[in-house]
Design brief:
Layout lengths: L15 H9 L3 H12 L16 H6 L2
Length: about 60
């Protein structure tokens, strides 16, 4: 696994969310709910890498 990854990401602002929702066919409320649950309020770590949430049920299923 490459741990040196650092993308050129930028934070989504309030104008990006409606555009994103229209593009993928969901409402802005659904996007907010997804972001709150999956990112815990922070999508990137201090070094700028995306946070990948550990999901034990997936880990054990793939053992």
């Amino acid at each position: 696994m490459d741990t040196t990854f650092k993308g050129a990401a930028r934070r989504l602002d309030d104008l990006d969310l409606p555009k994103l929702g229209a593009r993928i066919g969901v409402g802005e409320d659904e996007i907010h709910a997804f972001l709150d649950v999956e990112t815990s309020g922070h999508g990137f770590e201090a070094h700028g890498r995306p946070i990948i949430l550990f999901e034990p049920h997936v880990f054990f299923r793939n053992l």
